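Sharing a chain and its predicted structure for anyone who wants a worked example. Both blocks are below, sequence first, tokens second.
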Amino acid sequence: MATTDKASPRDRLLDAAARLSYRDGVSIGIEALCREAGVSKRSMYQLFDSKDEMLAASLEQRIPRYEARFAHPDPQAATPRERILHVFGQLERAALDDGYHGCPYLAVLVELKNPEHPASVVASTVKERLVRTFRTEAERGGAHDPGLLARQLLLIFDGAAARAGTGVERLDDGLATTTVTTLLDAAGMA
């Protein structure tokens, strides 16, 4: 379905890349991307050197919205524990959406398997920021080993997102937050 709104060709291409790569994977063809965006291949190559570059730009453009989804609505009033649990509560809610296919950044890393691919670099940066956020909260909350806890939390996040994204789990029973609560308790988080 071609886009016909007043957005620029670049924005339409980035939006199409976001939609199609999330739904169908990063192997989506240039023809399908251009058709979805309502932009010619020639125009696409005038805007981006390659499909890889366009995919990376699309992932980059989505970062603020992605991170805002997991940010606590009142971070000043919330405890570190509440801020961490909020992330997993949001993940559980997202997993209930019919169009949920997991974490788009994890999907790119898994599908591409090339850490030097421009899209993988963006996806890795997002994952590194999430683990740093978890570590900061773990430090603030008095965890025994904040670095280990942050890595464990990312493992749960990515595992839950992948299982829900493939339809193996729905996460509607609070499995992720229950698991994280047990882990926070074991780590000595206040």
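Comments welcome. The CA atoms of residues 22 and 99 lie 9 Å apart.
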